[in-house]
Amino acid sequence: MAPTLVTNCIRRLRFEHGEMTQQQLAERIGVTRQTVNAIEAGKYSPSLEVAFRIAEVFRARIDDVFLYNRGPATRPAMDGAPCE
């Protein structure tokens, strides 16, 4: 399975929110720990609903949690990486 073009800051956000475990996040958003692991690792893109639930847990905007990487030819210039 190829990695998705969607990257995320979930790991950093979990640790910024009291070192939340993948299991704790999974329980709050209604998925399995394995699903959180796959999303965090970039092996699986969440549904839009799950992405919004994740952002809500961290009180963040969805584009502060997830970034769609279109590729260098089409990506607009950014001031920094989304997880910094």
Short descriptors:
44% helix, two-stranded antiparallel ribbon, 84 residues, 2 strands, mainly alpha, single chain, globular, 434 Repressor (Amino-terminal Domain)
CATH superfamily: lambda repressor-like DNA-binding domains
* N-to-C span: 28 Å
State the helicity in percent bands.
40-55%
The structural domain count equals 1
Provide the succession of SSEs. Answer: EHHHHHE
Q: Total strand count, please?
A: 2
Under CATH, the topology is which?
A: 434 Repressor (Amino-terminal Domain)
Mean pLDDT: 87
- The total of helices stands at 5
The CATH architecture assignment turns out to be Orthogonal Bundle
CATH class value: Mainly Alpha
- What Rg do the Cα atoms give? 13 Å
Overall spatial form: globular
Strand content of the residues, in percent? 5-15%
Strands in their spatial order, largest beta sheet = 1-2
User: Sheet with the most strands?
Assistant: 2 strands, antiparallel
Enumerate the spans where pLDDT stays under 50 for 5 or more consecutive residues. 73-81
Q: What class would the helix/strand composition place it in? A: mainly alpha
